[in-house]
Amino acid sequence: MSNAPLSRIDGMTGARRHFRYFDFVMVAFVVILLLSNLIGAAKQAQVDFPLVGSVTFGAGVLFFPVSYIIGDVLTEVYGYANARRCIWAGFFALLFMVLMSVVVVEIPANPEWALASATYVIDGKQVTAPNQAAYYSIFGQTPRIVFASVCAFWAGEFVNSFVLARMKVMTQGKHLWTRTIGSTIFGEGVDSALFYPLAFLGVAGFTPHSIALLALTQWVIKTGWEVLLTPVTYVVVGWLKRREGVDVFDNNVNFSPFAKARKAAALPD
Fold first, then answer.
1. Which residue from 34, 59, 103, 178 has the least number of CB within 10 angstroms?
2. Which of 34, 83, 86 is nearest to 60 (CA)?
3. How many CA atoms lie within 13 A of 222 on its CB side?
């Protein structure tokens, strides 16, 4: 592994440059985003913690924050313009996943398969569920929640990337932990602040107070993951920068989410 000093380049150059590992990081970002929404979002988990008691949370919270961590890596290593490409790739992949889920769930099922039952043991009790009912409970999409999830992801990721890029310029690339954690505080804050009201405000059983408490709890948990994984972020960022040989600073990038990378890079901020 090379120990040569990194070449400092601006956002315009970074947007036009071919990177060795960018595609792999983008794939990791999209895969984690899709799987955390597909597998984790449908399950309500409950864990008993010492001194705290039982805590109920959406299982997706364990892995969804990793997409923000990879988003930090993308912006830190490859610059805002390249991170923007990944966010849009994730956005459209998420929309296609929703479309595919709706189509597959709504296709008429073979009665023999749909009515076949499987027995599960939950909390010491045997529960029997027909295949179609179980399939729908996992892959069925509630339009309002889907809308809230897509909007929250889009806004939160762009805020996260913008804050990190600006903080990197302000800190001259020093103190990586301040911008990874700082950007996550803002990005995850926007994500939680949008998702829970859009998804549950006005729904029976959800008061404004409970929604605010739920959003705050999820925000703290997601930000906590960023803090805990900061050493891992340092290792990954350092390794990628050494392998790519450059350090990107977004001094002259159009930060509009809708700007095309190459055209945006040519515009001063």
1. 103
2. 34
3. 33
Closest CA to 159 of 183, 178, 180: 183
Tokens of 46: 């409950």
DSSP H or E run through 118? strand 117-122
pTM of the model: 0.86
Contacts of 154 (CB under 8 A, 6+ apart): 87, 91, 257
Interatomic CA distance for residues 89 and 158, integer angstroms? 13
Q: pLDDT tier at 40 (50, 70, 90 boundaries)? A: low
Where residue 101 falls among pLDDT bands split at 50, 70, 90?
confident
Q: Which amino acid is at 149?
A: S
- What pLDDT does residue 269 have? 45
Q: Among all chains, which residue has been given the structure tokens 């999409």? A: 141
35/94 Cα distance (integer angstroms): 10
Closest CA to 186 of 209, 164, 204, 208: 164
The tokens for 50 are 């010492």
Which amino acid makes up residue 168?
K
